[in-house]
Design brief:
7 helices
Length: 198
């Protein structure tokens, strides 16, 4: 029971705390509502889960042998996330929903594979909850993480949809977009910087 609580706590903290994916989901919830954000939430959850399985079963030894790879990945991922932050910060304050601009499943999926926070969570979680004797604990952790991640990211989408009525005028929406984009860029910079201190 203690192990399950530890798995749940780890999953919740890593999923619910602000990060690049969460901020994009929040912005999408505001702009497009929960329904049109769910594909992105689903893609991010599935993408993270497959990344976790990949690292847990195949890639952890490679990362341990070549830790510089994770650093390079963090730098490239952070640069991409900074670019996404710039796009959000400089976006026009349009309140109309444009269907073609709604975030897609594959975008959420792919972002997790270049998201430094996701790699840190996967490597840490796989090393903590893996067992040399059995794959059971790691698979249990993966299932718990999938459920907690999906719910946590969904909460960010709902939060975005609920605060959207505060952003009915162009100035407040522009200010929000700028703030979220800036926070996204700062978060990416911090995650990248953290790689050099491991």
């Amino acid at each position: 029971m203690t192990l399950l609580l530890s798995m749940f706590s780890f999953s919740l903290v890593m999923s619910i705390t602000p990060g690049p994916v969460n901020m994009i989901i929040l912005s999408s919830g505001i702009s497009y509502g929960v329904k049109r954000t769910i594909p992105y939430v689903s893609g991010a959850t599935v993408g993270f889960t497959l990344l976790l399985l990949f690292i847990g079963f195949e890639f952890s030894q490679f990362v341990k042998a070549y830790p510089f790879f994770q650093t390079y990945l963090a730098i490239l991922g952070s640069l991409y996330i900074i670019y996404m932050g710039y796009k959000i910060a400089s976006s026009k304050p349009e309140l109309e929903v444009n269907k073609k601009d709604a975030p897609k499943f594959y975008e959420g999926f792919l972002l997790q594979w270049i998201n430094p926070k996701a790699w840190i969570a996967c490597v840490s979680g796989a090393s903590i909850f893996s067992s040399a004797e059995s794959h059971g604990p790691f698979l249990t952790f993966t299932i718990i993480y999938f459920i907690v991640c999906y719910i946590s990211l969904g909460v960010w989408a709902i939060l975005g949809a609920k605060v959207s009525y505060f952003l009915k005028d162009h100035f407040r929406l522009r200010l929000f977009n700028f703030t979220m984009g800036l926070l996204l860029m700062i978060t990416a910079g911090y995650l990248c910087y953290g790689q050099f201190n491991y």
